[in-house]
Amino acid sequence: MPRAPKLASFPAIRGALKFYQVCSVITGVGLLLLCAEMVLKYTPLRVELFLGGSGGFLWFAPVVEGVDGLVSTGDGLNLSLGILVVHGWFYVVYLFACFRMWSLMRWNIVRLATLAAGGVIPFLSFFMEARVGREVKTYLDEREAAEHHTRSEHSSLTHAIPTENKR
Fold it and tell me: Per the CB 3.0–4.6 Å rule, which of 34, 48, 57, 69 could disulfide with 80?
């Protein structure tokens, strides 16, 4: 059985949970955008999204088959490529947030793998964010309540000891 987190680490756990939740949502949105980009590029639609350039402010440019694979014909800022790069780098931040939650909560390695999968399986990060948030908050509240109850029992016992009052 894994060891329980120390009470002194509860403030750090709460901070790590907030960071994990924010990272989880950003990673999930980035992954959904990446999936949409892949559908646009690798299906018969064969387009990529561009910002600026000859097609206007925001436009789709066709993707053609080249010698080295698919080649974009657009000019301007390739938002499809940008989504890919941003999601990839932010996934590293998300993994750090997962590792921090995992190490502070002292979970098993399977839990870390499940958390990490949230950044590569569409929609999983949203479900994991809700589940982990609920479980961690419940755990912390129950542990703090039990600790408070234990402390109040000890303090009430010392106050309940009768003493003789001699004059």
Answer: 48
